[in-house]
Specification:
By secondary structure, the protein is an all-alpha fold. Helices cover about 75% and strands about 0% of the residues. It holds the Pfam family NrsF.
Length: about 220
C-alpha cells in the first residue's frame, strides 16, 4: 500500500475524531456551573426571587417567556460550539437564532394589534423597561467570563464572531436567571427589552473575543 493511500484511508476512517481529554466534560460543566451559580447568587442578593413566582408560573405567558429564552440559550450555545470547530459550516447558524426571535416578535405584534389602543404602550414598555436590559447585562458578566474561558479551550478561528456568540449565549442564560425576578410577561416587552439586554454581552464578547480567545 502506498503512503498516500494509507493516509487517505486513515483520514476517512470512522475513528479519526479526536477524543476529548479525560475529565474535559466535567471541567466544562464545572466552569459553566460556577458561572451560572454566580449569576443566580447575584440575582438573589441584589434583586431577589419574585414573591409571587408560583402564581406567575401558572400563567401561559410565563412559560412562553421562559420557552423563548431557553430556545435562545440552546441556539446560541450551538452556534458558539460550531464557531469553535475550524472549518465547520456556519451557513445555517443565523437561522437558529432568527427563528425564535421572529416567532416572538410576530406574537408580540399580534398581541399589540389586538389590544385596545390605550393598553399598547403598557404592553411594550411595561413597568421595568429602564432597568431590564441593564439587569440582564449585569447578570451575564459571570456567565460571559465562564463561556469565554470554555471557548478558549477549544479552537475558535473567527475570534470576534465567536466572542459575540459566546456573549449572546451568556446574555440568554442571564435572561433565564432574570425570569426568576422579572414581573413582565408581555411578548412585546420580552421580545424587545430582553433581547436588548442580551445584546450588551454580545457586544462585549465581540470586543473581548480577539484578546480572550486568541491562543
Amino acid at each position: 500500500m502506498k503512503t498516500d493511500d494509507l493516509i487517505a484511508m486513515l483520514a476517512s476512517g470512522p475513528d479519526v475524531a479526536a477524543a476529548p481529554p479525560p475529565g474535559a466534560y466535567w471541567r466544562a460543566g464545572a466552569i459553566l456551573g460556577a458561572g451560572l451559580l454566580a449569576s443566580v447568587a447575584l440575582m438573589a442578593m441584589l434583586l431577589g426571587v419574585r414573591p409571587n413566582l408560583e402564581q406567575l408560573a401558572l400563567l401561559p405567558d410565563f412559560w412562553i417567556k421562559v420557552g423563548f429564552v431557553i430556545c435562545l440559550c440552546l441556539a446560541a450555545s450551538h452556534v458558539g460550539r460550531r464557531l469553535c470547530v475550524p472549518g465547520a459550516s456556519t451557513r445555517a447558524l443565523p437561522l437558529l437564532i432568527a427563528v425564535p426571535l421572529l416567532l416572538m416578535w410576530a406574537l408580540g405584534a399580534l398581541i399589540l394589534n389586538e389590544a385596545p389602543p390605550e393598553q399598547r404602550a403598557e404592553l411594550f414598555w411595561g413597568a421595568t423597561w429602564r432597568s431590564c436590559p441593564l439587569l440582564i447585562a449585569m447578570l451575564s458578566l459571570p456567565l460571559l467570563a465562564a463561556v469565554l474561558r470554555l471557548m478558549r479551550q477549544l479552537a475558535p478561528t473567527r475570534l470576534r464572531l465567536a466572542g459575540a456568540a459566546g456573549g449572546f449565549a451568556a446574555g440568554a442564560l442571564a435572561a433565564l436567571v432574570y425570569c426568576l425576578h422579572c414581573p413582565e410577561l408581555a411578548a412585546s416587552f420580552v421580545g424587545f427589552w430582553y433581547v436588548l439586554g442580551m445584546l450588551v454581552p454580545t457586544a462585549l464578547g465581540a470586543a473581548l473575543g480577539p484578546k480572550m480567545l486568541a491562543w
